[in-house]
Structures are given as structure tokens and as C-alpha cells.
């Protein structure tokens, strides 16, 4: 068989060509995998965190701007929103908020009409310093606030019955001061029951009004639970990549002071 | 058998041309590879560093969210850190945070939840951290004050921020002007609203 010099050269050149093709395809595949990984990691987008920050800051601002019987301090809110808009604009976000009407909350867990009517207001209560319940509207279903010990036995309870008056069970014995104002407001202070208990609400979904409970938990931490009014606020956040609109209910404080007791 | 029957002496030129093209591609490819190659250091951006950035981002968000939670009727730890700040920039010295302007001034860990949190989550993992308080002055200009400084961040550093609303009623009445002077956070409003401080945390691998 005749051997040509060019055969070896051609085989070598073909081998180089194949090697280059393999190299190029490997690099391309690597780039594709890298790019897809980058795309996957971009799922950890900070928009949700930004949204939560905005909700938290705005909730704080509305709660601080609200005064019971006076309403929202619009100068406070205007300055707050102006500041927030400028601050977020520096990070490439356009912020706007819109207030809805203030309304009286239901005695549900969320304060909204569709919220859970049977719920625990405070867990592991050691002492109750002050407690106020003010009923605004009532549809006739029995509404009840009660303290339950660890075995779910009632320590004291306050019922608001169909005839529009409070019925107290062991309340006078459990609190130093009990003050009923008209048929719709009850104020209690200096709870003296030593057992650790939960304070629960039953049938809160058909009753609207305000509440405040404050005192000390079993772990010596002070608690302060209250809900005076509520307002829905709509947030719009726009950036180059995203646009979101969220409406959240904000609980406004009762602003009850000890002097009122 | 003549395998490449078409390749006779007259066509050697074509063969050499083909060889030359392949050789050129190899040389150019080699040069491109050398030019594009970069030294791999711990701070070089890569798929792995993107993953680490995501972890740092989550860690920073969780830390700030936890500190921004208020318990009962009390201010959040983050707000207390801002209100208690003495205006000094603190630098990690190996076992504590010391003032950049006065090394004998140590940051009181009991009065700084941010420093305590960094000591627990960032320092043991070798994560460098800068903490800044950013607010607007009365002319709507951005004012940046450095609380903790660990140097200039690397290219794969992550930044997390948390806005904290400060009210006039959060500060003792006769200390409002002093707070503005020391912390460099001005009173933005005539109402009870004082200012919003954006707590900015920058984290990166050392």
C-alpha cells in the first residue's frame, strides 16, 4: 500500500478540528449551566423583603400618628411618606400609599369581619394590670371574654348577652376594681388571681368594638394588647423589574391611659 | 489502496492551507484563553459566590427583622440602638468593637443589639460587616453615618436595609437637639414624627 505524507497530516488536522469542536461545545455548555444557575439564584429577589419593610414601617407610622377620638395626624403621615418616598427612590423604587376609611374592628383575631371569632388574645398571663372592653355594635350572639387555666377551666368570664348588658362570673373576686360604664363599656384593673392563664375571646365575629389588655406574662415580660380602630392602607411599589400593590389592614391603638380608669 | 486519491502533489497547497487555518485557530484560541483567564481568589465572583451571597442576604434579612421586632409596648432593639448611639464609628478589633477616633472607647455590647448580633452570627464565620444609619436632613439630602466599619466591601458583598421610624416622643424632650447633634439624625418634621432611619447592613466574606 502506498503511504502518502499528506494522509498523516490530514488525520492530524482532523484530530485538531475535532478537539477544537469538543472544546468549544464544552465551553458553551459550561456557559449555559452557569447562566441557568445565575437565573435560578436570582429567585432570591429582595422585593418581598422590601415589601415587608414598607409594611412594617408604615404600620408603625400609622399607629404613632393615630390618636383616639382625634384621628390620624395627617402632618405626621405626610412627612413620613415624603421621607420614605425619597429614601426608596435612592434605591430605585417608586413608592405610593393610599389610605382607606377608618372603621371599627370586629373582636376577631385579625379585626376583620372574616377573621377567627374564637381566639386567644394573650397566652401565659400572670397578672392583668388593666383591661377595657368597649362594645360598639352587637348582633345578639353571646360574646364572651374569659380566662382559662392550663386545664381549660374558667377562672373568670365576662359575657355580653342578647339583652345588651354584661354578665360577670367571678370577676369581682378576681379584680380589685371593676367599673361598668353604661351598657357597653367595662373596665377592670389590678387582677389578683395568681394562677397562670390564657385570656380568650369567644364569638368575636359578630361584635365590633375596642379592647385593651395589659399586664405581666408568666416569664415576667410585660404585655400590652390593644385595638382601637382599623384602617386599610394600599401600598404600591414600582421598580424597573417589578410592580406590586398590596392592601393591608392596620390596627390603630386604643390610646387608653390609666387616668381614664 | 489510495485512501486520499484526490490528494496529489498539486493539491499539497490546499493541505497546507487547511493546516495553517487549524494552527491559527489553535493559536488564537490559546491567546483568548490566556486573555480571558483570571486568577481565582476567595473573592472571585462565580456560581458558588452567588450562592454564598444569597446565604448572606438571608442571614442579614433575618438578623435585621429579628432586631426590628418590638415586644409589648417597648421600642424594638434596632430603634434602641439608634437612640443609644453616641455618634462614634466602631471597628472590630479582634475581640471587641472600639471607637475609630478613641481606641480606649469600647462599644457596650449590652447597649447594642446590632453589635451583639454581629458577634454571634458574623464574626465566628469570618463575615465582614459594615453598619450605617442613613437618614434625610431638613434639605432632603441623604446623610450617611457609619456605626460599625470593617473596611471597603468586596465585589460580592450584599446590602440589606431596614427602615426604622423615630418619633419625637421616643427621645427625652430636653435631649432632642443633643440627639440630632450627636447622631447626625435631624428632626425632619414639625409633628411628633422625627425621622426615618434606614439601617443598612453590608456583609461580605473576608
Brief digest:
The complex is a heterodimer of chains A (261) and B (206). Chain A contains four helices and 14 strands. Chain A has 261 residues and is an alpha+beta fold.
Structural class of chain A: alpha+beta
Mean pLDDT of chain B: 85
Q: What percent strand of chain A?
A: 35-45%
Uncertain parts of chain A: 257-261
Which series of helices and strands of chain B comes N to C?
HHHEEHEEEHE
Major sheet attributes of chain A: 9 strands, antiparallel
Structural class of chain B: alpha+beta
Question: What's the helix count of chain A?
Answer: 4
Count of extended strands of chain A = 14
Shape of chain B: elongated
Domain count of chain A: 2
Would you write up a description of this structure?
The complex is a heterodimer of chains A (261) and B (206). Chain A has 261 residues and is an alpha+beta fold. Chain A is built from 4 helices and 14 strands. Chain A has 2 domains: 80 residues; 109 residues, no CATH class. In chain A, the strands form 3 sheets. In chain A, strands 4, 5, 6, 7, 8, 9, 10, 11 and 12 form a 9-stranded antiparallel sheet that branches. In chain A, a hairpin with a 4-residue loop joins strand 13 and strand 14. In chain A, helix 2 runs antiparallel to helix 3. Chain A is elongated. Chain B is an alpha+beta fold. Chain B has one domain. Chain B is built from 5 helices and 6 strands; from the N terminus they run H-H-H-E-E-H-E-E-E-H-E. In chain B, helix 2 packs antiparallel against helix 4. The longest helix of chain B has 25 residues. The model of chain B has no long low-confidence stretch (mean pLDDT 85). The interface between A and B is large, with 44 and 48 residues.
Amino acid at each position: 500500500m502506498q503511504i502518502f505524507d499528506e494522509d498523516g497530516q490530514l488525520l492530524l488536522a482532523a484530530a485538531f478540528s475535532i478537539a477544537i469542536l469538543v472544546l468549544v461545545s464544552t465551553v458553551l455548555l459550561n456557559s449555559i449551566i452557569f447562566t441557568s444557575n445565575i437565573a435560578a439564584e436570582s429567585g432570591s429577589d429582595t422585593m418581598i423583603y422590601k415589601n415587608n419593610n414598607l409594611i412594617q414601617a408604615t404600620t408603625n407610622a400609622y399607629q404613632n400618628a393615630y390618636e383616639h377620638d382625634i384621628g390620624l395626624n395627617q402632618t405626621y403621615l405626610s412627612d413620613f411618606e415624603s421621607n420614605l418616598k425619597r429614601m426608596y427612590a435612592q434605591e430605585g423604587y417608586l413608592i405610593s400609599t393610599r389610605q382607606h376609611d377608618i372603621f371599627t374592628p370586629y373582636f376577631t383575631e385579625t379585626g376583620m369581619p372574616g377573621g377567627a371569632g374564637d381566639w386567644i388574645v394573650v397566652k401565659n398571663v400572670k397578672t392583668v394590670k388593666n383591661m377595657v372592653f368597649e362594645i360598639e355594635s352587637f348582633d345578639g350572639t353571646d360574646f364572651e371574654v374569659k380566662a382559662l387555666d392550663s386545664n381549660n377551666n374558667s377562672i373568670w368570664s365576662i359575657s355580653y348577652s342578647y339583652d345588651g348588658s354584661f354578665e360577670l362570673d367571678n370577676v369581682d373576686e378576681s379584680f380589685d376594681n371593676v367599673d361598668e360604664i353604661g351598657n357597653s363599656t367595662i373596665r377592670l384593673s389590678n387582677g389578683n388571681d395568681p394562677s397562670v392563664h390564657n385570656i380568650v375571646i369567644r364569638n368575636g365575629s359578630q361584635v365590633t368594638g375596642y379592647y385593651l389588655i395589659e399586664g405581666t406574662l408568666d416569664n415576667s415580660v410585660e404585655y400590652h394588647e390593644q385595638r382601637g380602630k382599623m384602617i386599610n392602607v394600599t401600598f404600591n411599589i414600582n421598580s424597573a423589574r417589578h410592580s406590586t400593590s398590596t392592601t393591608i389592614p392596620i390596627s390603630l391603638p386604643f390610646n387608653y391611659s390609666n387616668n381614664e380608669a | 489502496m489510495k485512501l486520499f486519491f484526490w490528494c496529489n502533489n498539486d493539491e499539497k497547497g490546499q493541505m497546507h492551507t487547511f493546516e495553517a487555518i487549524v494552527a491559527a485557530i489553535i493559536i488564537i484560541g490559546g491567546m483568548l484563553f490566556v486573555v480571558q483567564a483570571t486568577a481565582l481568589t476567595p473573592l472571585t465572583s462565580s456560581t458558588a459566590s452567588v450562592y454564598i451571597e444569597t446565604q448572606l442576604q438571608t442571614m442579614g434579612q433575618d438578623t435585621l427583622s429579628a432586631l426590628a421586632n418590638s415586644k409589648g409596648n417597648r421600642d424594638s432593639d434596632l430603634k434602641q440602638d439608634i437612640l443609644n448611639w453616641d455618634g462614634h464609628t466602631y471597628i472590630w478589633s479582634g475581640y471587641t468593637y472600639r471607637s475609630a477616633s478613641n481606641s480606649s472607647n469600647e462599644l457596650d455590647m449590652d447597649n447594642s443589639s446590632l453589635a451583639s448580633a454581629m458577634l454571634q452570627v458574623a464574626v465566628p464565620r469570618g463575615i465582614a460587616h459594615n453598619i450605617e444609619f442613613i437618614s434625610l436632613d431638613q434639605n432632603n439630602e441623604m446623610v450617611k453615618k457609619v456605626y460599625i466599619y470593617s473596611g471597603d466591601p468586596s465585589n460580592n458583598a450584599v446590602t440589606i436595609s431596614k427602615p426604622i421610624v423615630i418619633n419625637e416622643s421616643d427621645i427625652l424632650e430636653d435631649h432632642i437637639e443633643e440627639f440630632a447633634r450627636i447622631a447626625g439624625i435631624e428632626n425632619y418634621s414639625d409633628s411628633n414624627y422625627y425621622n426615618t432611619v434606614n439601617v443598612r447592613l453590608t456583609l461580605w466574606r473576608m
